[in-house]
Amino acid sequence: MTTLPSGFARARHWLRDHPLAFDATLAFCVLIAMICGSFADPGEGHGPTFGTRTPEAFSVLLMVLAASTLVLRRRRPMAVLAVTGVLTATEYVFMDPPAPVVMSTVIALYTVASRTDRPTTWRVGLLTMGILTVAAMVFGSTPWYSQENLGVFAWTGMASAGGDAVRSRRAFVDAIRERAERAERTREEEARRRVAEERLRIARDLHDVVAHHIALVNVQAGVAAHVMDKRPDQAKEALAHVRDASRSALNELRVTVGLLRQSGDPEAPTEPAPGLAVLDELVDTFRNAGLPVEVAGADRGPRLPAAVDLAAYRVIQEALTNVRKHAGAGAKAEVSVVRVGNTAEITVLDNGRGSAAAHPGPESGTGAPDGGGHGLLGMRERVTALGGALTAGPRYGGGFRVHAILPIGARTGEPEPPGPAAATGERR
After folding, report:
1. What is the pLDDT of residues 72-84, one digit of tens each?
2. Which residues make beta-bridge pairs with 348?
3. Which of 302, 273, 296, 272 is nearest to 283 (CA)?
4. Is there a contact between 110 and 162 (Cβ–Cβ < 8 Å)?
């Protein structure tokens, strides 16, 4: 069963959704109020009395016209205020005592004040108050200080103040809503950005792990197949390296993929991310694969920040993997990690003379397995994400050089575009 409050609520929502119907209802109510007020005689001493006078036909016409214009108060507020003001002033000039046509002007002035800016409200409000108050004082039969004349001044002033207050509150609520919506959009965009960055980071880790260990497994398996018949002991040693490399690959893949688990998963791995502390182990895997690697300089100072330490390790890992895959037979590599001020510089050199297909330049644009791939791109993304710079390209006289500069106080999550020297050469 419908209750009275719910019925009023539905009616209020319907009128809010149909503003023209609301304004027509308001105009009708104002007309009824003006007609009822026109039957009141102000009187003296004990206040107004009803039934002692009736409105003139001209006053009724002015009230009907004034009320009718209120239907358009939202669409043309200034025009409606001008019309109702002229009709009210006309009533004060020609009728005595005047009918309360001023009620329509009060509504129109409130509408203007609630839909314009404050300076406009001040100008229009003072002008309306002055014209109507002077007309009531000059042309009325009552003394200029009578309460009816002062009432015109008070009601028009309150209409201006009330409309301005409603406009200010509406603007305040709109500003709060807009800030809340903007904060919600910003939060969603930030969440999407962080997810994209995490996916990119995991993709780089997977590429580094797979490219490094699978390359070593491929080399050692080839060695084992080559010497299996003539030197079985060396074949067993190569297969042992295959087993170690595959175990390391599985461990690192478990650590990387474990980041995708739920936070409460008890099987989530807890092993720390690799860093320069295990640089010797990384170099040994390449030496076991037949690549001579010399560590010319290794930083022995305090441990680097975790993000910088991991990036340095991955740069060396990917660079040595590229040397093993592309530098050709008889190539040697040299690794250097030094601190210069507030930066860590990682350099990987080789003297290889691989084929041209394995050393495409930036203009090649190849994405073939044996050509330019994602290795240098991943290294560059890692370094620039920390605010550093990476250069990679052929060396004068042969070979390849990878040089990365990582700020020790790096900031993650704010990638910077690489400098012009960051794309001097491409190699997977």
Report:
1. 988 889 999 999 9
2. 335, 402
3. 296
4. yes
